[in-house]
Amino acid sequence: MNWLKNLKIIQKLLVLISLCVVFIGLVGFVGYYFTKKTASDMSSLYNNRLLPVVWLNDCRTHIRANETNMLALMLTKDKSKQKKYLEDLKIRADKFNKDVENYEKTKLDPYEKEQLIALKEGLAQYRTVRTALLEMIKNGQSEKAYIYFSTNKALLDDTNVHLRNIADYNQETANKVHIQAEKDANTATTIIISVIILAVLVAVSIGLLIANLIAKPVEQVVANLKEVAEGNLKVKNVDNNAKDEIGVLAQALNATVATLKGLVGAVAQSAEDISANSEEMSASSEQTAQGAQQTANSTTQLAQGTQEMANNINLSLENVNKMTHAIQQITQNANEGAKATEEAKKSSTQGSKNAKLAADKMLEIKSATGNIANDIGDLKKLSENIGEITELIKGIAGQTNLLALNAAIEAARAGEHGKGFAVVAEEVKKLAGQAGGATANITGMIKEIQTKVGQSVAATESAVVKIEEGVKIVQETGEILEQLNHVSENVNLSAVTIAKDSQILSTNADNVVRMMENISAITEETAASAEEISSITEEQTASLEEISASAQTLASVAETLTKQVSVFKI
User: Fold this and answer.
1) What domains does the chain contain, in order, with CATH numbers?
2) pTM for the complete prediction?
3) Rounded CA gap, 272 and 277, in Å?
């Protein structure tokens, strides 16, 4: 019966309905057949048997009545009565002929045809005798007519015998048809009752089989659904490989339970992963906060070092101005000749000292600027590390959001029992959204920090280049002052050379002043940038504290989610 098992439910019901229709049609056909047969027999019985008996008996009545009319004509002398008898004789003869004609139109069997031929032959002889008798009576030969009638009375009796035989035959045949009709009725009753009993047995058997094929798998499916609704996913698979709706439902339930097992396991694992990642994120946030604090401290030190460098540059600027003033005095005194040689020597000596001091200061500025560049590079690396951490947090938030969405979908599939699960999934989704928003803010801040740091690095590198140029110029100034010492000693040899060198020195001193002023401006900008970096770093530290708090909240939600998932048995 696998073919019936694999049929769709509607097809099973159609099989049962078709069987019922077949049996009902069979009962109807048998009833219709025998009813129609009985009706045909009754019609034949009436038209071919009953009416012929009526007509034949009527013929017998008419022939006997005409026999009486013939005797009355022979006995009476009254013309009026004779006329009356003749009229009645004629009417009855016409009726006799009409009845015989009607009988001839019926369905005659061979026996009836044989009897009818004999009847007609007898009637022909009888009609000849009757014509002769009527002629005798008309001529007043009544006695002769009576003798002739008595002599030929056998012909009338033979006619009556033939009529009676045909009538008796039709009556007997009608009785046989009646008996056969009763037999057919009994046969029809037996067939109909047998078909009804067979139909009931087959319909009940097929109906019970179909009900069993539908009810048992449905009971198994309902039992498994109840277990699943209570959180028990250890139910056995419904053993039903049929291809009908129940089989498809059972296979779908088995697949759903398997999928739900995997999903619940995945959610539990994800909850553990979220908890672990939250702890890691919290630890990373703390480390990042510490790094940010170190960056803030380094930035503060950078600002202090930059301020100190600015002070040193101002001092160097004052020294360079003094040197410029001394060079101008040297230039003025160079025209006076040897008289100012000693004074020029002293001035050049002082200038050499100042140039050396300026060179030392410039080297200190270069060293401080290099430290600033290194600190800014470290800050840039920390910012990149923070960016990587925020990308990690952003990925975790996205994964958490996706898990929350999957959890919400499965909660919706679970129906009433998944409402608490759906609420937890929604809270996880909100926290993931908040973490994602905070990560986006932090990412923006980090990008801004990186931009500022890049600008600071560029400015610092420019400052280093300018400082190196200043150091070079100061060193050149020191060399020139050293040469000036030698020139001062030999001023008497070449006063013109001293004047020219003094002019060059004055020009270079002006250049040094301008460079020192540029360095001072760059240093002030560096100090301002350092303060701005310090402020941004503090904001970053606050954001990292918020991330740490969110990570703790996410860990709490993961713990709640783990408790919710623990309801399921897998």
Assistant:
1) 2-222 (1.20.120.1730), 248-565 (1.20.1260)
2) 0.37
3) 8
